[in-house]
Design goal:
Blueprint: H1 9-21, H2 28-48, H3 57-69, H4 77-101, H5 105-132
Helix pairs in contact: 1-2, 1-5, 2-4
Length: about 140
């Protein structure tokens, strides 16, 4: 296999920041902005560069079809429709974005380091809160 060069850090940064803040509560607006930027960069790269086909397409389509079909027996269809749209839409946007943008092992490592940093930050806040507010 021919090694793929890593992307420049600014291209990966929105995706890395998105991964870093996922474990942090009350960051929904920032998550949506970073997801939109990540998706935009991924679409731009996908249109300009040769990209392999998206893996697991059939499985993902089956997953989406089952989720949509589950609306038939849903108790609260409006709520469930919103949940299905949110969960499938956001998950697929992130899946596509990370698939296209993480071209090399180095890119994946940088994104995983951002995830670890987010987990460490969240854990630090949790431990500090426990120590400061011990009742």
């Amino acid at each position: 296999m021919i090694p793929t060069p890593s992307r420049s850090w600014p291209i990966i940064l929105p995706a890395a920041l998105l991964i870093a803040i996922l474990p942090i509560t009350h960051t929904v607006a920032l998550r949506m902005v970073l997801l939109a930027v990540t998706l935009g960069l991924a679409v731009h790269a996908w249109l300009r560069e040769p990209t392999p086909p998206l893996p697991a397409r059939k499985t993902l389509l089956l997953w989406a079809a089952i989720a949509v079909a589950s609306l038939a027996w849903s108790v609260d269809r409006e709520y469930s429709r919103g949940e299905v749209a949110n969960e499938i839409g956001y998950a697929m946007a992130a899946y596509f974005g990370f698939f296209v943008l993480a071209r090399s092992e180095g890119d994946v490592r940088r994104i995983m380091l951002a995830l670890i940093a987010g987990i460490v930050l969240t854990s630090t806040f949790g431990i500090a809160s426990l120590l400061l507010h011990d009742d």
